[in-house]
Amino acid sequence: MCRKKPKTRQFFLFNDILVYGNIVINKKKYNKQHIIPLEEVKLESLEDENQYRNGWLIRTTSKSFAVYAATATEKQEWMAHINKCIEDLLRKSGKKAVAEHAAVWVPDVEAPNCMHCKKTQFTLINRRHHCRKCGAVVCGPCSNKRFLLPNQSSKPLRVCLHCYDTLTSTKINNSNEVPQKDRINADTSGEEDSDDDEETAKGHLESPKFYGDCVKQEETQ
């Protein structure tokens, strides 16, 4: 489930990573494949709602999102297999599960108005933005602050005013997160809020790891 509409993705589960990517040729070719270390993954089941059925959340440190299977059985099998691989990995490797995960973005269609001020109505001029801390859809004035969220990026990210106030007050006891008080340039719009697979090329998230990168490096050595 992307911010604008559902998009088909192919997932591959290994004993230590979960890989997903775009389908170019069904069962033959995929691209823009993202690698998620299983120690970062946390699953949460979703209740069926209207046309969205057999879903669950995949939470990770840098990005969290909802996925939907074709059947209830497929959902149960995927969740069971992923959780089993996570348990085995943590037990055998001694790694610890990640405690903090990125927020799931609220889909655009669920927020005709700003979820912070409740007043601004979104149009072609008044663009939607997503708070990187809570995932809410907010207007520009209600998200004109940035804050460093180390688990998501090495650069300060857009957050809503509510989260900014909470994060800055928490910073007194936490020196790992540094507030960025400079206002966001008014020209920035929905480009930085893209949740498509090119989002990491926009400069606001760390560059993703792609399946096959390691193989290419070995071949060049």
Automatic annotation (TrEMBL):
Pfam families in alphabetical order: FYVE, SOS1_NGEF_PH
Record-level Gene Ontology MF annotations: zinc ion binding
CDD domains (UniProt xref): FYVE_PKHF (cd15717), PH_Phafin2-like (cd01218)
Record's compositionally biased regions (Acidic residues): 189-199
Residue stretches making up the PH domain: 1-87
Record region (Disordered): 174-221
Domain of life: Eukaryota
Keywords for this protein: Metal-binding, Zinc, Zinc-finger
Domain FYVE-type, residue spans: 108-168
InterPro entries noted in UniProt: PH-like_dom_sf, PH_domain, PH_domain-containing_F, PH_Phafin, SOS1_NGEF_PH, Znf_FYVE, Znf_FYVE-rel, Znf_FYVE_PHD
Name this polypeptide is given: Pleckstrin homology domain-containing family F member 2
Originating species: Cryptolaemus montrouzieri
